[in-house]
Amino acid sequence: RKEVEQDPGPFNVPEGATVAFNCTYSNSASQSFFWYRQDCRKEPKLLMSVYSSGNEDGRFTAQLNRASQYISLLIRDSKLSDSATYLCVVANSGYALNFGKGTSLLVTP
Amino acid sequence: DAEITQSPRHKITETGRQVTLACHQTWNHNNMFWYRQDLGHGLRLIHYSYGVQDTNKGEVSDGYSVSRSNTEDLPLTLESAASSQTSVYFCASSESGTGNEKLFFGSGTQLSVL
Prior knowledge:
Chain A is mainly β. Helices cover 0% and strands 54% of the residues of chain A. In chain A, the strands form two sheets. In chain A, strands 2, 4, 5, 9, 10 and 11 form a six-stranded mixed sheet that branches. In chain A, β7 and β8 form a beta hairpin. The radius of gyration of chain A is 13 Å and the shape is globular. The N and C termini of chain A lie far apart (37 Å). Chain B is mainly β. In chain B, strands 2, 4, 5, 6, 9, 10 and 11 form a seven-stranded mixed sheet that branches. In chain B, strands 1-3-8-7 form a four-stranded antiparallel sheet, with no helix packed on it. In chain B, a hairpin with a 2-residue loop joins β5 and β6. The N and C termini of chain B lie far apart (37 Å). The model of chain B has no long low-confidence stretch (mean pLDDT 93). At the A-B interface, β4, β5 and β10 of A face β4 and β5 of B.
């Protein structure tokens, strides 16, 4: 079983829609959690860290449920520029990160 | 500005050849990583280093080696290239700290083994 599981999508949504991505992780000792964004043929870039209390950055909200080993990302008022692949990322001990396979989002006019 | 650079951007080689991919960062980060990305697998960790002279195997280390002789560089060597090693390779670095370290990625190397 892959350590980090995501629905690959694709999610096709119209501009202005709200979309949510979910992710589960298998290691209950995981310590740090992130969402990365990757545009086609580009390197991944950090979108936001995920904290136990939940956190928000503009139109983006991340939630962590340690009991269910579940992470979510909510995007409100989707923009065309939000089209990308969103990677759920988990860190155990140490600094090496475990990446999910990614969820593809396409925002259409 | 500090950055992390990979070279070459594209490489075509033949099976059995030794290939080295370069990664150079000017962030002065202790931690450096090599990942490969393939359709259906996502990013998988090959090798990583937490400092000079330190190297560690990742999830898919067979057929690869790294060396860390200074802070700035972590070259990845394919000892005898195989077609299964055709992939996009990403190098990354991060600071050491107490957690939530941000990974900075290079632009990637597209490697084709024919």
